[in-house]
Amino acid sequence: MKLARRPFASLILLACLTASLPAQEKLEPSASIGKGVLASWNGTRDLAEGGELPLPMPASVALSDFALSFILELDAGKTGDISIPFLSLTDPDSREVLTVQAAPSGRIIARLGQARLDAQPPQLGPVGKPHHIVISIRRDTSQALSSLWIDGVERSSVVIAPGQVQLGKAFIAEAGGRLGGKISDVRLYDRALARPEITELTRSTIGETAPLQKPFGDTLELMPHEVIAVLGGSEAANLAEDGSLEALLALQFPGLRFSLRSLAWENDTVLRQDRPQNFGDLAQQLQRVEATCVMLMFGRQECLDLGEAGLDQFREALGKIIATCQAQTPRIIILGLPPFEAPEKAKEGEKPKPDLRGENPRVQQYNAALRSLASDSHLLFAEAPKAAKSVDEPLTFDGLNIGKSGVWQLATRFIGLTGNTDPLPKRDDIKPLIAAIQGKNRLWRDFWRTTNWGASKGEQAAPSNSLDAKTRWHPAEQEKFLQLIREADQEIHQLANGALKMLP
């Protein structure tokens, strides 16, 4: 697989992030997103109607920083990338202050004077479904703190010098049939909104909609364009990033063009999932990847940390994670836990590693808890191997951590959920496919777990003094990974179709 050149952002290494960073700070929606609302309108207006919005604004108020939030739904079926003005904020003398444009393809542009925020939404854009748009103006001559957000993700930012504006009216501009859709829930703030506030506002407006997907029956059957999110700790991260599972799924479901995205993080447990500040909680992460299916693999570390006495605590904590996932999609799979094995023999001078086989009765207890949770919540449960196939094919490489052979055995057990009884290929038979998936996973990791989080998602401007420190170019540069990842997904499905023709 030939990978395109990675965005320059991935080469900037200022802040190494690890799973030991402080947990994400929680912010309740009601705590601050209701403060500073200068004007609001809860109605819905067809873009074809045009006219003034009933958004009363005191003309005497001069604003330096402000934010505009609204929900936009463009009609499906229209094509083109010519941006058409559809929303304008004017001053008391009817002169335009802020203009927002959209294209049927999903492109969004906001203009404030000479400043321009220009962004493409992820994947297919907002056509055919409601999306949350926020334009937050924070004036600063040294940093690009004014930004355009789509569905809780920053898509564009720009420097806007200090100054003030007065706002008088809000208008919907008639698009003459070139742009169809609806606008609703318009809010004007007399201050800029912070990142956690925007993500929580997105969640409170469009993030609580009921999932449209159908739950699994007795077997695993993927939908076209399924997005599978993998959650868990080290075992889940290894299983997702190795590529074996995704390769077998691609061979099992040719033509469906599904995507697998690892949200797993080493050392995650049901009790603690540490993330960088402003990373977003689990619900926001699932929304960002537009997950339609979730795979959960928790319990192996917990059985060591909590033991038999912590089973009830484990069930309760995992139950909360399941509930969060069910708010996004009912299509959830729980993976069973493989046992611990004898450790490898210590080399001369090395301290012997602990033999954890005595904990395997706890593993069985935790597997029973997982089966019970899956049954109670009507979820699929994939049994893990109870022992290695042979001495030459151990599940782990050190008694504790799942190795390459163990990942393959877990993947083949998972494929058993499909009801497939045909012989599966050997790993060596599909090496090119697995290698392509591993390449895609490296791109995904660089995008999702970007090393320089402060410049990509935090409040830093330019991540290097050798570049323009006044321009916050890093977030837009980071978003270029998405196109590379989509291209890698496409190549994976092409390789899978080719591999099927060559397999016996």
Instruction: Give helix % range.
Output: 25-40%
Oligomer: single chain
Identify the overall geometry: elongated
* Mean pLDDT figure: 83
Any idea what the radius of gyration is?
A: 25 Å
End-to-end gap: 23 Å
| Count of DSSP strands | 19
Count of helical stretches: 13
Q: Strand fraction band?
A: 15-25%
Content-based structural category? alpha+beta
Low-pLDDT segments, ≥5 res: 1-5, 8-30, 122-126
Largest sheet: 6 strands, antiparallel
- Order of strands, main sheet, comes to 1-14-4-9-10-11
What does this structure look like?
The structure is a single chain. This protein has 504 residues and is an alpha+beta fold. Helix content is 28%, strand content 20%. The chain has helices at residues 29-32, 195-205, 234-242, 244-252, 282-288, 300-305, 311-328, 360-376, 404-415, 431-448, 453-456, 474-479, 481-502, and strands at residues 37-46, 51-52, 62-63, 66-74, 84-90, 96-102, 108-112, 115-119, 131-137, 146-150, 153-158, 165-166, 169-172, 181-189, 227-232, 259-262, 293-297, 332-335, 380-382. The strands form four sheets. The chain has a six-stranded antiparallel sheet. The chain has a six-stranded antiparallel sheet with strand order 2-13-5-6-7-8, with no helix packed on it. 40% of the residues are buried.
